[in-house]
Amino acid sequence: NEAITMHRAALELRPVENDEWDRSWSLNELAVRLSHRYDQEWSVNDLEEAVTLGREALELRPPGHPDRALSLQNLACDLKKRFALKAVMRDLEESIELLRQVLELCPTGYSDQPSTFHRLALCLSERHDQLG
């Protein structure tokens, strides 16, 4: 909770019109902390805010940004969590698309590649379970 409070304070000090790199970092870090708290406390508001902030961070990390894959991965995970909670297919479809983008961006053998393939496989399996 204290980490979330501190990340919120840091974000307030980084207005939109200032350095987008720093703001995207703050948005991403706050989204990650909220997502972790959701995992512990199951607060839907935390998950919804994590998705919103993750989208904002991704907007500030266009193609070519060195941290784009990280933002894609984090948002994909939060959307998968939201799908598990609300069963809205759009969330699962978007998660699949974002994970595919991560794999396209990252070179073969990058350290998180196996877990990204695993996450994508889980999402595809879930889609199959839902749609046949």
From TrEMBL:
Q: Supply the SUPFAM superfamilies for this chain.
A: TPR-like
Give the source lineage, highest ranks first: Eukaryota, Fungi, Dikarya, Basidiomycota, Agaricomycotina
Its name, as the record gives it, is Kinesin light chain
Q: Which domain of life is it from?
A: Eukaryota
Q: Which Pfam families match?
A: TPR_10
Source organism of the structure? Pisolithus microcarpus 441
**Gene3D superfamilies per UniProt:** Tetratricopeptide repeat domain
